[in-house]
Design goal:
- With about 70 residues, the protein is of the alpha+beta class.
- The protein has a domain of about 50 residues.
- Strand 2 and strand 3 form a beta hairpin.
- The longest helix has 10 residues.
- The termini are far apart.
Length: about 70
């Protein structure tokens, strides 16, 4: 996984800015809350302040949130 993927993200990873741009309505604060509660997509933390998301993990997380009704939320 070297170079850039089809979304032009280096090595197929998105940093926090790219993640917030990719997911409508996402903010850095909301992303942090999702990481804290474990309700967000899988992420990587290769160093103290670096957070990376794989596009495929973000797409799966979005797909898993699909609903057909509000009765069992």
């Amino acid at each position: 996984m070297y170079g850039r993927d089809e979304t032009n993200h280096p090595n197929g990873f998105m940093d926090i800015e790219a993640f917030c741009e990719y997911v409508p309505g996402m903010t850095r604060g909301r992303a942090a809350q999702l990481r804290y509660t474990g309700k967000g997509p899988k992420y990587f933390k290769p160093s103290g302040r670096t957070i990376l998301y794989r596009k495929e993990d973000v797409d799966k997380w979005i797909e898993d949130s699909a609903r057909t009704g509000t009765a069992n939320v």
